[in-house]
Design a protein that fits this description.
Rossmann fold, Dihydrodipicolinate Reductase, domain 2, homodimer, alpha/beta, 2 domains, 6-stranded mixed sheet, 40% helix, 12 strands
């Protein structure tokens, strides 16, 4: 029996709980019996060592009923095998996720996370700690949502040297750029529209200034390309200065403009910036999709595309990590 | 120490041998020490239980020096842990690969193959035999060359239900269609060109009649979608009847024409046929590339693209299978 703890119960945490509930039979076919023994949020927790009723947990509005022990105390006192860390990300401090992950590993639990902050802040430290403690550390959901990229590069392309990764890693920016081009609207017009549609946040700077893309790039550079990169190494330009006229000029030569995150091991740079992309190029992807091009020595260029966000999409990545850890066949 | 046997020593076999030679240090970092103890072709074999000198083997012209025991005898008499079966494919009989795989599994060896024939002919039987014997059966290289699709769907998307796979799975057909559209040439003009460039074979029917695409589709349907499909279940139309005028008509509506292989579990069909594809769609890929769209319940649509053929590209898939079997971290 695998005991699961979920730390963070916003959209992603709820998505994971739903999938663990509705797809229990399928998932147990891969990994055997499991139960969720703890769910926490910033206010407290739900605990049942015999296994929580996930449907009831999901139905609780605004997490009312979460009380008592908070995450750090839960890690100390509750018996679990794997922590699913899905609290909000902070790329500067890495907290509170970083502490949750370290303490969970310290007690010998496997960790799966969608939280970029801890990896941006302390990837090497976490990787070494996982190795020292003999636990698994999985983070497919930190980059590209449902789009497989970390396991794809580390497993499916194992034996290849990964030389360059270039990608559209932020769906909000890509939505804004796609609409600006198609509708000949200004940046601020599309931003308002995206905010109404909840595609952009009230404070959009994390996305539109390129910070989210840079955080993901650092994770890819460290985990897939072994580049020992930190957030400060990324040269970042956002999309806020792009004008409808730029699209017109680009379009005349059959190009579009996309926010491209590139980690280049050969030339030794990490960069997030708006770049010209030929209309037929796979990175000229539209809407909120993500795409990545992985340049290798044997396999040549491999491209992958998928939905970069969404509760079930992120849950998909988390569940695939869970299955990879415990798969029995 | 892992003992490897390579059955078949054409372009793919030689590509695998080169990669096992030049990237030995990297690969041994994942799986530990290995040596190649046997290489066979239709004329005979090279055997050295202490480990063959792969560079010498690769340099032998036209496999002169291959003599003595043939593959079936090698399987009986040589001690190996994993067979890499890369003999030419025959989608109707599955031979000679099918016998090689069955006999290798029978003696308890793991099997990695790029050979579509045995899987098209007897996927279920081989899967059951592998399970019964407790050996691994890996076949990433049978579909899409370097493009990861089987491990991507089975591992990276584990927990998802795969509902539809649609793909451009034959680089030769895609090259011909791309050139017909771009250069307004006829089918037979481009075919001659492709034959000169060795992109198409002297007898191109296996590719242009859709047989190769159908074989790959059967493998995807059985391995990823658990559809219990056979070659006869695929409705097949090739590309030989397509005219330059069709591209013109399609182009006027911003469509192109691609040979699409589709396995649809919901509607219960398997089909290979030329279809209209919007110019901006990921399956409107150009040249000899392959692309596949995987429709899932949680992750939505995932697209992957890569080089569909080539000795190092196919070797990449085979080596990633080898690493998956023996990975130690």
């Amino acid at each position: 029996m695998i005991n699961i703890a979920i730390f963070g119960f916003g959209a992603v945490g709820k998505g994971v709980a739903e999938v663990l509930h509705y797809k229990k039979e399928l998932i147990e076919g891969f990994i055997g019996k499991y139960k969720v023994v703890a769910i926490t949020d910033s206010k407290g927790s739900l605990i049942d060592e015999k296994g929580l009723n996930l449907m009831e947990a999901i139905k609780i509005k605004k997490n009312k009923g979460f009380s008592g022990m908070k995450t750090l105390e839960v890690i100390e006192k509750v018996d679990f095998d794997v922590a699913i860390e899905v609290t909000p990300t902070n790329v500067h401090s890495g907290e509170p996720g970083l502490k949750h992950i370290v303490k969970s590993m310290d007690k010998g639990a496997n960790v799966i996370t969608s939280n970029k902050g801890p990896l941006v802040k302390a990837f090497k430290k976490l990787e070494r700690l996982a190795e020292k403690k003999g636990v698994s550390f999985m983070y497919e959901a930190t980059v590209g949502g449902a789009m497989p990229i970390i396991k794809l590069a580390k497993n499916d392309l194992a034996g290849n040297e990964i030389r360059v990764i270039k990608g559209v890693l932020n769906g909000t920016c890509n939505y804004i750029l796609t609409r600006m081009e198609r509708e000949k609207m200004t940046y601020s017009q599309v931003l308002s529209e995206a905010q109404e549609l909840k595609i952009a946040e009230a404070d959009p700077s994390y996305d539109v200034e390129g910070i989210d893309s840079a955080a993901k790039l650092v994770i890819l550079a460290n985990s897939i390309m072994r580049m020992d990169a930190s957030f400060e190494d990324v040269e970042i330009t956002g999309i806020t200065k792009i004008t409808p006229e730029s699209f017109e000029v680009a379009g005349n030569k059959n190009y579009t403009i996309r926010l491209i995150a590139e980690a280049n091991k050969e030339k030794g740079f990490l960069k997030v910036s708006p770049r010209l992309v030929p209309h037929h190029h796979p990175l000229a992807i539209e809407g909120t999709m993500n795409a990545a091009l992985i340049r290798t020595d044997l396999a040549g260029d491999i491209v992958v595309m998928g939905k970069g966000a969404g509760k079930y999409e992120t849950a998909s990545a988390i569940v695939s990590d869970l299955i990879e850890i415990y798969r029995r066949d």
